[in-house]
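tool_call: predict_structure(chain=1)
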Amino acid sequence: MGLRPATTFLRLALRRAARGTGSTPEFFERRTAVQALPALHQILGSIPWVLVGGIALRAYIPERMTLDVYILVHQRDEERVRAAFLAAGYRVTGLLSIGGLSVQSVQASEPPIDVLTRADVWLDDALAELVHDSAGYPVLGRSFLILLKLQAGRTQDLADVQRLVAHTSAEERTAYLQLIRRESPELIEDLESLYTLADLEFGNRAQEG
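tool_result:
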């Protein structure tokens, strides 16, 4: 069995990585919620949901502006979510190949929303252990967000994980590895490579201290 494309990409990145070319530790402490989102609390009511994707990063690292809005719900709640959006004046514009649906408001100024659905064993715990961004929106916990992005394996997802693990402690990194080892052990090498890349580019506070 050959290497995953993401693993091959990361091995190449490690060979070419330059030390100290990234943002300062102080930059990583910035938290904003500039990008406006629909009133998802009102639309979805008591249905458990959480922001994922690029917009979820703003709870942990400086905000990355993106036109994409992704939320994650449990697969068993998909029909309730669909009904809630339809009742709020949204229309379903398509189904997602990875599970879920896309919806669009009749208000043209609002961004489309991709509703991801999964039924992972860990999802109930993740939906019960939320973090909130500075605008009060629920965001997937950092370790689970890292897991999702590693599983996606796209170049932007890998870059996001690199920033998510920058300046994290040894204890935090051990916890991330434990989750990956339990849920997707084939991704261990990728995560360890991203630890190394993050430290090369952004520095390691523990080592510097």
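agent: DSSP finds ten helices and seven strands in the chain. Proceeding to next step.
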